[in-house]
Amino acid sequence: PWQRTLERVNFLRTLKNCSALAKPELSIRRIMYVYGDPVHAVVSLYRRSYVFEQFEKVPQSPVNTEEARRRWPTLVDYATAGDPLGLIDHVFEWERAACNPDTPPIIFVDSHLLRNRNNVMSVVDFFLKDGPPVLPRLDLSSYEEPYSFEASPRNRIYTRDPERVLNISKEDLLYSIELLERTYKPLRDRLASFKGVYGLHCTGKAWA
User: Which of 102, 95, 100 is nearest to 207 (CA)?
Assistant: First the structure.
């Protein structure tokens, strides 16, 4: 079984990364949009110093790396500006595409669910099987709802020594989290409504 799992994991690594696309290309056969808590995602990008490169990829109006460093050098600057990366618009455009029968089949999967071996195998089957696509049946026991920055396993990494990890004070970190949680509440709520796995020409209305 583990060899079969390894083959499927290796298959996932061969998939094209479409995160830089504002919406799907019609030439793509099937698509999985992996999502998680947007608040944690932004903080993590700043911790790993990956955030500036993302400004050239994710927003519908890209900003070059140097400009991003000048305008949003710290997490506080980002949080004060709202949603500079355009994560809300990014999810909205992809969900709108998922609800359009003229686009390739799209599924949204919570990243936590991909830690489960059987879930990985089910997702790969979604890509490999011929015929009409079927929403993968996933084990939702590891699905976490609602999103909470405080409950994040890495929360201690950020709060223990934010001066070293994020180059800001603890007060600025808490203030930034408060702003981000306010900004991303509608997005968090929408992602939570996906219940871990969602998509395939959904019949429900995309959010406004």
Answer: 95
